[in-house]
Design goal:
Layout lengths: L5 H10 L7 H4 L10 H10 L1 H26 L7 H11 L8 H21 L8 H4 L3 H20 L6 H10 L6 H24 L13
Helix pairs in contact: 3-4, 4-5, 4-10, 5-9, 5-10, 6-8, 6-9, 6-10, 8-9
Length: about 210
C-alpha cells in the first residue's frame, strides 16, 4: 500500500484510524467510512475548522456531564488524565488508542500498577508528594509505576497515553485508597460511555469496544 509496511499500518491504525488495517487488503487508503450527521456536516462545511468545533463540543459536553455528576454526588469523578482521554475520543474517535477497550484497560492498568508500588514502598495513606515533597521512595514509586504501565499496556496492545498520567496521579499519592480507585474507575466508565454515545449521536461510528484487528 504505497510502500507502507505492516508496521506502518499498525502504527496508523493505533494512533489515527484503525480502519486503515483493511487498506492493506484492498490496496487503497481506507477513508473514514460511515461519517454522518453533525460530524459530517461540520467537516464538509469547514474542513479542519469543523473538526475543531467537533472536538470542542464533544470535550465540553462530556466533561461537563462528569463534572455535574461529581458535584451532585460529591465524588471526584473528574481527574486530570480524563481531559486527555476526552480529547482522544473526539479528535481521533476511530483510533485504537481512543477505543473504549484501550481507555478502560489503560486507566485500570495505570491505577493498579501504581497502587501495587505504593504498597511495596509503604506509601499508602502517606501525604502526597505535592504536600510533603519527593523522597527517594516516592521517586522510585513513580518511575517504576510509569515504566511498568507502559510495559504492560504494550504487551496487551492497549496503548492509551492518558493512562500514564493516571499512574502518576496515583503514585505521587493523590489517590491511594481502594474506594478512591473505585471512584476513579467510575469516572473512566462514565466518560467512556458518554463519549461513545455522543460520538454516535453526532454521526461518528465509534466502536462499542474496539475495532476488529485484521
Amino acid at each position: 500500500m504505497y510502500g507502507a509496511s505492516e508496521r506502518d499500518i499498525d502504527q496508523i491504525a493505533e494512533y489515527a484510524d484503525s480502519g486503515v488495517r483493511q487498506a492493506i487488503r484492498t490496496g487503497s487508503l481506507a477513508p473514514v467510512v460511515g461519517r454522518t450527521g453533525l460530524n459530517a456536516w461540520l467537516y464538509e462545511k469547514w474542513g479542519n475548522r469543523g473538526n475543531a468545533i467537533y472536538t470542542f463540543l464533544g470535550s465540553l459536553l462530556t466533561i461537563a456531564l462528569s463534572g455535574l455528576l461529581a458535584w451532585a454526588l460529591k465524588e471526584p469523578l473528574v481527574f486530570p488524565s480524563l481531559g486527555a482521554t476526552a480529547f482522544l475520543f473526539f479528535e481521533t474517535p476511530m483510533a485504537e488508542v481512543a477505543s473504549v477497550r484501550n481507555t478502560v484497560i489503560g486507566h485500570a492498568v495505570g491505577a493498579g500498577v501504581a497502587f501495587v508500588w505504593l504498597n511495596v514502598f509503604g506509601l499508602v495513606g502517606e501525604p502526597s508528594a505535592i504536600a510533603e515533597g519527593f523522597t527517594a521512595d516516592r521517586v522510585a514509586c513513580v518511575a517504576l509505576s510509569l515504566g511498568f504501565t507502559g510495559f504492560f499496556l504494550r504487551l496487551l496492545r492497549a496503548a492509551h497515553p492518558p493512562a500514564g498520567a493516571t499512574t502518576v496521579i496515583v503514585s505521587i499519592g493523590l489517590l491511594t485508597e481502594w474506594d478512591e480507585l473505585l471512584i476513579l474507575g467510575a469516572g473512566v466508565l462514565l466518560l467512556s460511555l458518554s463519549a461513545l454515545a455522543l460520538n454516535r449521536l453526532l454521526g461518528v461510528p465509534a466502536p462499542l469496544w474496539t475495532m476488529a484487528r485484521y
